[in-house]
Fold this sequence. Notes:
By secondary structure, this protein is of the alpha/beta class.
Amino acid sequence: xxxxxxxxxxSVFLPALEGGGAERAMLHLAExxxxxxxxxxxxxxxxxxxxxxxxxxxxxxxxxxxxSPLLVSKTLALRRYLQxxxxxVLFSALDILSSATWAQRLAGxxxxxxxxxQTNLSQQFRDHQPNTIGRIRPKLVRLFYPxxxxxxxxxxxxxxxxxxxxxxxxxxxxVIYNPVVTPAVLAKMQQPVDHPWFATGEPPVILGVGRLVSxxxxxxxxxxxxxxxxxRSARLMILGEGEDRAKLEAQIRALxxxxxxxxxxxxxxxxxxxxxASVFALSSIFEGFGNVxxxxxxxxxxxxxxxxxxxPAEILEGGKYGKLVPVNDPAALAEGILATLQAPIAADxxxxxxxxxxxxxxxxxxxxxxxxxxxxxxxQVS
Length: 382
């Protein structure tokens, strides 16, 4: 496809394409922008991760081949890339220490940098190495995030957190929800699930999806399920992989739930599982947006979520579109699951709400950000 000189050349910078929600959201954004005629580079510090094989041919993958020490290596490699390619705008995500703004300054190029903040940074710093690097990171964010030309937050809660950390007015931080509903995702929801638990006549399946790490607090979901199981027949399936697998398996054995809880690992197509589940449950301590909540909503599946910072309460509009329960409260989570199994919200209502998070709608909002950064009234792209 030919590109006119006035069409901005855009880059999306990520550490890698691991199987997380932030990576998936940024890949969907890149796809949406490429579909509007933009030339897109997907710039990776390391070319690894579960989503590598899903990158369409319309997007060029650039491998920075970063090595240890990773922070220094990827920043210097990104500087070289910016000097050689000089994209109009660089979108940077999962870039906690702001390699993108450093690289842009070192490169001395006119590329505009947009920091896309995908998580509640304060919560992440408290959760990860709180007594060492976690204490330094807020100071670094305060110093270097203001160097960006724009900041986009994945939820209002994330925007407020960034404003507190940096001293930047929240009015100048743009909130754009993640683009999680795509035609490909909707098509995958129609595929069958090859698992006996989803056969006709089987007990309802409660589904959790996410990395098996402390942030997701799946032990609370397992404990809540144990309460549910005492009151009715049901099953729990958690899709994902991570460092907490052994701990979860031990908890499941201790509760005697081996026959009713499954941990199948990472699923290439979690969306089909969402479409076939009776309830989707999110037990996280914190999120940035909560992609899986919006994805389950697009599948028409009833939702119970912790009212964690930030994102799920915004997706569910304060409980209008699903149950919200306190963080780390197994009894409340169990109560929410039982109530939802008894009286789920209508699937068509949920699907309609999920259109707010469609890739087309979100791409329009990012194009508006681009038009402001490039000083054009409107971006005319095919």
